Every structure is written in C-alpha cells, then in structure tokens.
UniProtKB/TrEMBL annotation:
The keyword Zinc does not apply. It is found in: Cell projection, Cilium; Cytoplasm, Cytoskeleton. Residues 1-71 form the DM10 domain. Pfam families: NDK. It comes from Triparma retinervis. This is DM10 domain-containing protein. GO terms for biological process: CTP biosynthetic process; GTP biosynthetic process; UTP biosynthetic process. GO terms for molecular function: nucleoside diphosphate kinase activity. InterPro entries: DM10_dom, NDK-like_dom, NDK-like_dom_sf, NDPk7B, Nucleoside_diP_kinase. Keywords: Cell projection, Cytoplasm, Cytoskeleton. One of its GO terms (cellular component) is axonemal microtubule. CDD domains: NDPk7B (cd04412). It comes from the Eukaryota.
Length: 312
C-alpha cells in the first residue's frame, strides 16, 4: 500500500508533513537540516526520521513556478576518456553550486558513459543550464550537455526514468564500494572518486541510490547483534544518497579493502592515515565507505545493488 503525503519545505530550513488534503498534521514544522532545496525534485527521494519519501509531483502550480525559478536543474553525460576524470568533473560541478541529484553509468554505443543530473539552490533553470555548461565544458573533457531547460527535462527522463537504459553492471570479479551519505553532503564525492582512480582501481559500474530503512536493514543484517554500532550504521545509510561502485580486477576484494583502511576511523587515522576512511571518515557509522569484506561476497553485493535494487 502506497500512502501519499504533502511535504512543506520552508526557506528557513524547517519542514512539516501533512496529509494531501492538509486536514491532518503528520509531523509538526521543525528544523531539519538533513533536507535541502537541492534534494527536492520530481523523481528524487528524501529521508526524514528514517522514513523515505519519493517525490512524485509539486503540491500546486504556485510551488512549481517558484521552485523552477529558484532551483535550476542541468544534465550532462561524461563520455570517452573523460570517464577517468569523473571525480574532477563532479567536484567542479559541486564547486559551481550544484548538488548531484542522480548519477548512473550505462553502455551507450558500445562504451561506458556516466549521466549526471545536477540541481542548483542558487539559480533558476535557465541560468543553471548555462552555468553547468560553462563549468563542465570549460574543463576540456568529452561531454554532452543539455542545451535548454526543455532538453534537461527530456534528456534526464530518457536517461533516468522508467524504461531507461540499464546500468553498466558486468559479470566480472568485483567488489562493492558504497560512498556514504556524509561524504556526498560534505562535497567530497569528487575528491574520493579521484583518490579511488588515482590508487589504480577501475570501476565498471557507478550509480546513485536512495535507500530506505528496510533496504539498509537487509543489507547490514550480517552485522545485527555483532556490532554495537549497528543501528547507527543503518541510520546513516538512509541519511541521504549513496553512490555505489562496482570495482573490478583480480584479488580486488582484498586489495580494495586494504585501501579503505580499518572501519574504526580513529584507528585508521593513527595506523593507516592515507586510507580512504582515515581521510574522509569521521566515526564508525560515518566511515566514508563500505567495502566488501569477503571475496565470495563481492559478486553478491554488486548484484544486490546493480541488478536487484536498480530495478525497483
């Protein structure tokens, strides 16, 4: 059973939740810093107190006009040799005032490409398209960029919407890397992808996911009753989007796990200060990345995300 709600987001960062008819308050208006304007777009999802809400439409025509005037969207596709510079490109997009709203690699004309949907909390759609184009094309990499707001709507729907191309998941020896929500919120998605590629790792698939509590509980079930931080781990995984990477290569599970470092961030900072968790992690739950523990689980974890969850 699917229930509908009305989420009201206010300029001061407060949020309230009502029933669609506005006759019943589900959640009183309170500050909720985990939700920002750039996260509110049709097709996206937000998590409020461990419950995930999928955004399907604007509440009214006035909201639509104000939202599209203040929160612009842009779309682009990273192609060819630029794939190796995905971290630099995403970092530049973020530095230009955009939030990455969706991300997926697919096979297009025989090669892997990465589609990027970005939202700006600073400029409207008309200006967002031009700022986005100037930002990414100015880097000199091979990219396609939607030329008009109408193209953004069409291109993003074709790329990410129902019936779109499947991701570039492949049946190879692999490990799963999940870039956790705090890394993305802190603007470090680009830098950590740069570091992963610079360390010599290759990914065959990349996709952004918005997980709900049920999925997070299922994925982390092996740690239930084992790690005292289990509830914190589950809670953080639904704090915002995660970016999943299928990283491929021989002995890849062990090699990538070594580069991630100890899951205890304080220990990682002391003993392995150059590892991903030491550089980007803050505590046990916000440890920057999840990586596959056992070689036999690499394929299973990647299949779970890129084959099963991606079709839900």
């Amino acid at each position: 059973m699917v229930k509908k709600f009305r989420i009201n987001y206010f300029a001061d960062g407060t949020v309230e939740i009502l029933n669609p008819e506005r006759t019943k308050t589900i959640m009183k208006r309170i500050p909720y810093k985990e939700v920002s304007l750039g996260m509110l777009y049709i097709g996206g999802a937000v998590t409020i107190f461990s419950r995930q809400y999928h955004i399907v439409d604007y509440a009214d025509s006035g909201t639509r006009k104000r939202f599209e005037a203040k929160c612009g969207k842009a779309f682009g596709i990273i192609k060819g040799s630029a794939i190796g510079n995905v971290g630099e490109i995403l970092g530049s997009i973020r530095n230009a005032g955009f939030v990455i709203s969706d991300l997926k690699s697919v096979i297009l004309e025989g090669e892997v490409v990465i589609g990027v949907l970005a939202a700006s909390e600073i400029v409207g759609t008309e200006e967002a398209v031009s700022v986005f184009a100037e930002t990414v094309l100015g880097l000199g990499f091979e990219m396609y960029v939607s030329a008009t707001p109408e193209d953004v709507v069409k291109d993003s729907a074709d790329y990410f919407g129902e019936g779109s191309l499947p991701n570039s998941y492949s049946n190879e020896e692999c490990t799963l890397c999940l870039v956790k929500p705090h890394v993305i919120k802190e603007g470090n998605l680009g830098p950590i992808l740069n570091d992963i590629i610079a360390a010599g790792f290759k990914f065959s698939c990349l996709q952004m996911f918005y997980l709900d509590r049920e999925t997070s509980v299922e994925f982390y079930d092996v740690y239930r009753g084992v790690l005292p931080q289990y509830e914190d781990m589950v809670g953080h995984l639904i704090d915002g989007p995660v970016v999943a990477l299928q990283i491929v290569g021989k002995n890849i599970v062990e090699d990538f796990r070594e580069m991630c470092g100890p899951v205890n961030v304080e220990l990682a900072k002391t003993l392995r200060p150059k590892t991903f968790r030491a550089v980007y992690g803050t505590d046990f739950a916000k440890s920057a990345v999840h990586c596959t523990d056992l070689p036999e689980d690499g394929g299973l974890e990647c299949k779970y995300f890129f084959d099963i969850l991606s079709q839900i």
